Amino acid sequence: MAFGMSEPGVRRWYNEPPQYMLDLYNEVADSSGLTRLPGPYGATIVRAFSEKDRSRDSLFSFSVTGLGANEHVLEVEFHVHYSRLPKAERHLLEDNIYMMEVERVSEMGSQALVKEHVAAHSSGWRVFKVGGDVVNRDFGSGLDESSGGIVGASGGVVDPSGGVVGPSATSDQDQIRVTLQVTATTLAGHPLPLTLHHGSHGTHQPLLVLFTSHPDGNNTITTPLPIPEVRKTFESPSANRVRRSLDEDRVPRIPSGCERRDMYVDFDAIGWSSWIVYPKSYNAYQCTGQCSFPLGQNLNPTNHATVQSIIHHSGEFPEVQRPCCVPSAYGNLSLLFYDAEENVVLKQYNQMVAMQCGCH
Known about the structure:
The protein has 360 residues and is mainly beta.
């Protein structure tokens, strides 16, 4: 497993991430992927689901997969692109305003989610906040949080059977089908023809965007994927272009105290570039060097490390080792990637970058 996935996604040659997800990545992360801002609604995971083949006309069908157990759904947004009302219809409107309504439809019927006023001459993207309960498999059936499973923003249970266990789940039982219907009416309730754009890819593809978080903040990497071949070692990108001189290679590096040094991770080099979109690479840094007595405050020693250093230096207790140079502060990394179902995910991973080194 890698990054919590039993198998990674594969980016098809014709696929490009939705522009919304690219813009969101650039908003929350710097050029190296280091997280600089929290996600919308405080989310640490944002998933974008494109529509499925069942979509047509005013109906938009999505298959929600990949939600982890105990993952809290903070908000769900429906992004849809629409065209301006025909001129012949605009004269029917009062104050050049009409209504757009989104409903969730299922075998149990339909339920209104949100209704908004829309200007008659408007067109383009419309974002509807449809609420976390819309991804509840038993939406509208009256189940409560005591049933277990993923908890929606207003207490709804996403999957009381616990079926959604990871992004590689593909059976119907592990999918939450969400079908939304968009209608347009005058303020008096008369239906209006409205052109809504469909497509599983392209600049106008509709999206169901889930904003979630783990209650325990457990956004950590699990056992890494097996890597069949590493084409090059971790090194600075500039080192790939500039060869060091032979004289420089012959000069041994003089050991120094505990310090932070570069450790560049290139996702293409380790075979992960097919599913990780951004960043292409990043500097994770590493902590190297000795923690020699006496430990200065510039080494950020813990009280325990200071005592250990004194005892080691005394020589009275040979079994007591010198303190170790390790990361003492971390930064988080934001990754934009494809999961096993080819959905685009933006996820914050904790403690991915060594920001500071110290003797511990």
